[in-house]
Design goal:
Structural class of chain B: mainly beta
Shape of chain B: globular
Distance between the termini of chain A: 36 Å
Shape of chain A: globular
Oligomer: heterodimer
Strand content of chain B: over 45%
Number of strands of chain B: 11
Largest sheet of chain A: 7 strands, mixed
Mean pLDDT of chain A: 94
Helix content of chain B: under 10%
Low-confidence stretches of chain A: none
Largest interface: A-B, 28 and 24 residues
Strand content of chain A: over 45%
Order of helices and strands of chain A: EEEEEEEEEEE
Radius of gyration of chain A: 13 Å
């Protein structure tokens, strides 16, 4: 199993550009999430999904969109990039309701810089 | 993460024991996780406590006290490779929501 994969690993954008960060998992996990990690701020939840077709907002959703058309994929879209979105983005997945606890498996991260 | 409190940084000597504390304010949750994150890498699972008490896994142990609202991670026989950030995370009581992370404790192990 590849686990949780993310592309690209690094990205530089100009203010106002849009892009999609890709995330895929091959573990048949129900739940998938996007976090951003900034120095001194820890991991903050952007959006999450408890199954295909179902998404919800986390702590810091503004400026980001998600969709979950398949179990495997959970892309994160930046609509109009801003310097405040410079961060490291982690995608995570977990088994969901089928397990007694919610251990999350993380992808390697995407390092995004917005100029 | 605003309900979870951890020290920002700690330094310890190789071969020593270090305890990283985590306090929280949530009244009910499924359990508490500890993750390890090396610089530039993704977090990886270390331990999960659902019942009060100590869970031992080799050099690492994790403790939970629900009545006192705190947990700790105990690292024994410290090695240089243990230099990393350690993240405490709640498994929320609403089963469908993802983990809520503290800001993490950056541990530096020195010779």
């Amino acid at each position: 199993n590849a686990g949780v994969t993310q592309t690209p690993k690094f990205q530089v954008l100009k203010t106002g550009q849009s892009m999609t960060l890709q995330c895929a998992q091959d573990m048949n996990h129900e739940y998938m999430s996007w976090y951003r990690q900034d120095p001194g701020m820890g991991l903050r939840l952007i959006h999450y999904s408890v199954g295909a077709g179902i998404t919800d907002q986390g702590e810091v959703p503004n400026g980001y969109n998600v969709s979950r058309s398949t179990t495997e994929d959970f892309p994160l879209r930046l609509l109009s990039a801003a310097p405040s979105q410079t961060s490291v983005y982690f995608c995570a997945s977990s088994y969901g309701a089928s397990r007694s606890y919610n251990e999350q498996f993380f992808g390697p991260g995407t390092r995004l810089t917005v100029l | 993460g605003q309900n979870i409190d951890q020290p920002t940084e700690m330094t310890a000597t190789e071969g020593a024991i270090v305890q990283i504390n985590c306090t929280y304010q949530t009244s009910g949750f499924n359990g508490l996780f500890w993750y390890q994150q090396h610089a530039g890498e993704a977090p990886t699972f270390l331990s999960y406590n659902v019942l009060d008490g100590l869970e031992e896994k080799g050099r690492f142990s994790s403790f939970l006290s629900r009545s006192k609202g705190y947990s700790y991670l105990l690292l024994k026989e410290l090695q240089m490779k243990d230099s990393a950030s350690y993240l405490c995370a709640e498994d929320p009581p609403i089963g469908n929501t993802p983990l809520v992370f503290g800001k993490g404790t950056r541990l530096s192990v020195i010779a």
